[in-house]
Specification:
heterodimer; A: 77 residues; mainly beta; five-stranded mixed sheet; B: 257 residues; three-stranded parallel sheet; 8 helices
C-alpha cells in the first residue's frame, strides 16, 4: 500500500503504526510532530494510530529560523 | 530590586532573543547564540528530511534544556496555515509558546493584521502563549492584547532590512497603550538599533538577520548583548530631558573673576 509522506509517494508493505513508521525511518519521536490527513496526532497515540492506504502523512521538526517569511515568488526589487 | 522579564510565569534571563536562521552552519549558530547570552531562541517548523537521515538536526546544537525554544509560524500567509504550524509546533516541542506570524505581503513581509488578530484569538483560547509579530501600530497592538496575546512583537523595520527602529514614537505609544510586554521583532541592524529599542522601554528585542548576516556573527552577537543591557539600564536610569541650549555642568562659584 501507498501513503504520501512529506509530499512524496511512499510504499509500505503492510499496515504500520506511526511508531513503526518512525522506527523504520530511524526518526526519534521526541523531536518531531506528525500530522495525518491534516490532523495533528498526539505523541501518546503514535503506537496505536495505524496508517491506511492513501493517508497523507507529514513529519516535521524544528529547523533554523527567525522571522523569515516565505518569499517563493518574490525575486527582489 | 532585580529586573526580571516574566511572561505568563516564564522567567526570561535575557532581554535579547535570537533567531536561528541564515547562519553559515549549525556550528556558527551555536557559537553566536552562546555569545549573545540569550536563553530563548526562535525556530521554524519544517518537514523532516526523510531521505537523508545523516543531515544534522538543529537541536543537536541548541540544547532545549539550556534554551527556551520559541517556534514560529514563519512563511504562513493565512490563518489556517498559521494554526496548522502552531499546533504541529506544540506537539513537536516542549512548550505552549508560539511566535505567531501571518504574513500579508511577500515583498515587505508586513503582517496581515486581520489574520493575525484572528489567529491570536483562536490560539490563545487553545492555551497557547502567543507572541504575535505585528506592525508598529498601537491600535493593532491593543487588539492583539485583547485577543489574548502574551506579549506583542512590533517590527522596528521590515524583516531582514536592518533599517533600525523606523518609528520610535509609535513604539513609545504602543508601550503606553498595552499592559503586556513589548518585544521589538525585526529590523534591528546594529547595536545602536537594539539600544534604542531598549531605551524606549521595550521589554526585549528579537534579532536574527542582524546577527546571522553580519560579517562576524559571533562578534555581533556579543555587541547586541551589550547593547541590550546598556539600553535597558539607560531606560531604568532615566535619561535627561533634551534641551536646545547648553547647561553648564561646572559650578560658576569660585571662578577667578
Amino acid at each position: 500500500m501507498k501513503i504520501v509522506l512529506n509530499g512524496q509517494d511512499f510504499e509500505i508493505e503492510k499496515e504500520l503504526t506511526i511508531q513503526e513508521l518512525l522506527e523504520r525511518l530511524s526518526i526519534r519521536p521526541e523531536r518531531v510532530a506528525v500530522e495525518v490527513n491534516l490532523e495533528v496526532i498526539k505523541k501518546t497515540l503514535f503506537h496505536e494510530h495505524i496508517l491506511k492506504d492513501g493517508d497523507r502523512v507529514e513529519i516535521v521538526n524544528f529547523v533554523g529560523g527567525g522571522q523569515n517569511g516565505r518569499q517563493a515568488h518574490y525575486k527582489g526589487y | 530590586m532585580e529586573d526580571k522579564l516574566i511572561i505568563r510565569g516564564i522567567e526570561f534571563k535575557s532581554r535579547l532573543w535570537v533567531g536561528t536562521g541564515k547562519y553559515k552552519d549549525f556550528e556558527e549558530t551555536k557559537k553566536a547564540i552562546e555569545a549573545s547570552g540569550t536563553d530563548v531562541v526562535t525556530v521554524a517548523v519544517r518537514r523532516v528530511n526523510i531521505f537523508d537521515k545523516n543531515s544534522p538536526n538543529l537541536l543537536d546544537y541548541i540544547d532545549p534544556k539550556r534554551y527556551k525554544i520559541l517556534p514560529n509560524t514563519a512563511g504562513c500567509y493565512t490563518v489556517e496555515e498559521a494554526l496548522r504550524y502552531a499546533r504541529l509546533a506544540r506537539e513537536a516541542g516542549i512548550s505552549d509558546m508560539i511566535k505567531l506570524e501571518v504574513i500579508g505581503d511577500e515583498k515587505t513581509l508586513f503582517p496581515d493584521v486581520c489574520g493575525l488578530i484572528k489567529a491570536t484569538e483562536i490560539l490563545a483560547k487553545e492555551g497557547f502563549i502567543v507572541f504575535p509579530y505585528t506592525n508598529d501600530d498601537p491600535v493593532t497592538a491593543k487588539r492583539l492584547e485583547d485577543a489574548g496575546a502574551a506579549a506583542v512583537m512590533p517590527l522596528g523595520a521590515p524583516i531582514g532590512s536592518g533599517l533600525g527602529i523606523r518609528n520610535p514614537y509609535n513604539i513609545k505609544i504602543i508601550l503606553e497603550t498595552v499592559k503586556v510586554p513589548v518585544i521589538v521583532d525585526a529590523g534591528v541592524g546594529t547595536a545602536s538599533d537594539a539600544a534604542i529599542a531598549m531605551e524606549l522601554g521595550c521589554d526585549a528585542v528579537l534579532i536574527n538577520t542582524g546577527i546571522a548576516q553580519a560579517k562576524d556573527p559571533i562578534k555581533m552577537a556579543t555587541a547586541m548583548k551589550h547593547a541590550v543591557i546598556a539600553g535597558r539600564l539607560a531606560y531604568l536610569a532615566g535619561r535627561i530631558p533634551k534641551k536646545l541650549y547648553a547647561t553648564a555642568s561646572s559650578p560658576l562659584e569660585g571662578m577667578l573673576i
